[in-house]
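User: Let's play a game. I give you a shape written as tokens, and you guess the letters that built it. Ready? Here's round one.
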């Protein structure tokens, strides 16, 4: 098969084809559809590499429908291929680097979401925008009211416009924010429509309901988790998923000294933030004897709540992954027993190490005593 790479840009797409280590064809088009004379169904099939981006799913489906094999490149590892090497990074160079990597079989593949999860993620992104836009509108309205010497009480964003309009009866000066309230009404109405669509899509995902059995995890958080992870079995261990989401500490152990820092914050920032929010909710509302809350409070006592809540978010990701992998619901007692076994095993390891160190110390002491006894007075 032919070896091709595309560099997808906002205004243009760069095409590069290589054969036997040489560039045999280049071109630039404004629309991917314009590549049909080169990659269309009438042409010999090609292996085509594209970097994961917003339009990658559409391009993947289009090129695949033309009979090509499409490789989705993991952008977090594209530098390993030589992209941006020596400070030289252009669309032309990037396309050539990827094409040569295709020919050499060095493409680091990214996970391709299933169509159902793509649609779920798409509607969740729309909801995210509407929530953030409404929150910004509420903040702006509060600021405008304060300029007039009026402090508005705290309330849920969905009820903010109603509360302010009631206040307008006594405070005519609040009429200045009416245009903002009208915009908030639109956002709230659209959010209701979007959340109804999310509920419809979630109904086709039984695992979402099971993930909601975990304290602090609601339908939106569970849906975001499913839309990002897509398939629990693509991770062998919980730690792999936690690293994928950027919830593990960074490490710099060069020079023989181990240095552990803050979390890496790699991966999907929206899901990571949602897990942190869920952790705060769990820490406040879960039963006091829930093993996750007990674990959080133990860490918070030693290292503070901020560190504990990030650790709980990491642990929460592992719990959700395990429930999905096992196709089950959250069982505090079962989780508590597993935690107990883990603590017992950890304690046994510590005791074993302590005993080994004590034996080594006694051995060194006996050797030292023999050396001192053998020395002449």
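Assistant: Ready! My guess for every position:
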């Amino acid at each position: 098969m032919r070896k091709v790479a595309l560099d997808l840009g906002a205004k243009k797409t760069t095409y590069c084809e290589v054969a036997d280590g040489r560039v045999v064809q280049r071109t630039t088009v404004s629309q991917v559809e314009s590549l049909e004379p080169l990659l269309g169904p009438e042409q010999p099939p090609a292996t085509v590499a594209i970097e994961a981006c917003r339009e990658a799913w559409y391009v993947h489906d289009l090129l695949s429908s033309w009979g090509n094999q499409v490789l989705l490149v993991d952008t977090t590892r594209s530098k390993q291929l030589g992209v941006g090497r020596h400070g030289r990074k252009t669309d032309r160079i990037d396309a050539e680097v990827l094409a040569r990597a295709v020919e050499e079989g060095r493409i680091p593949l990214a996970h391709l979401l299933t169509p159902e999860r793509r649609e779920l993620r798409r509607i969740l992104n729309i909801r995210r925008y509407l929530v953030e836009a409404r929150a910004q509108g509420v903040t702006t309205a509060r600021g405008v009211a304060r300029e007039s010497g009026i402090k508005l009480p705290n309330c849920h964003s969905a009820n903010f416009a109603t509360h302010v309009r009631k206040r307008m009866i006594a405070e005519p000066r609040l009429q200045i924010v009416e245009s903002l309230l009208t915009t908030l009404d639109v956002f709230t109405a659209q959010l209701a429509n979007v959340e109804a669509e999310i509920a419809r899509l979630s109904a086709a995902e039984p695992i979402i309901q099971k993930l909601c059995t975990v304290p602090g995890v609601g339908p939106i958080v569970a849906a975001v988790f499913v839309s990002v992870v897509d398939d629990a079995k693509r991770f062998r261990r919980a730690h792999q998923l936690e690293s994928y989401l950027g919830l593990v500490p960074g490490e710099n152990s060069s020079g023989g000294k181990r240095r552990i820092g803050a979390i890496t914050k790699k991966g999907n920032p929206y899901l990571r933030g949602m897990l942190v929010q869920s952790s705060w909710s769990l820490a406040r509302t879960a039963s006091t004897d829930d093993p996750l809350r007990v674990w959080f409070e133990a860490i918070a006592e030693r290292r503070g709540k901020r560190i504990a809540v990030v650790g709980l978010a990491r642990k929460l990701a592992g719990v959700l992954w395990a429930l999905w992998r096992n196709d089950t619901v959250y069982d505090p007692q079962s989780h508590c027993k597993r935690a107990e076994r883990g603590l017992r095993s950890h304690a046994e390891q510590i005791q074993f190490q302590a005993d080994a160190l004590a034996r080594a110390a006694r051995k060194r002491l006996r050797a030292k005593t023999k050396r001192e006894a053998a020395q002449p007075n």
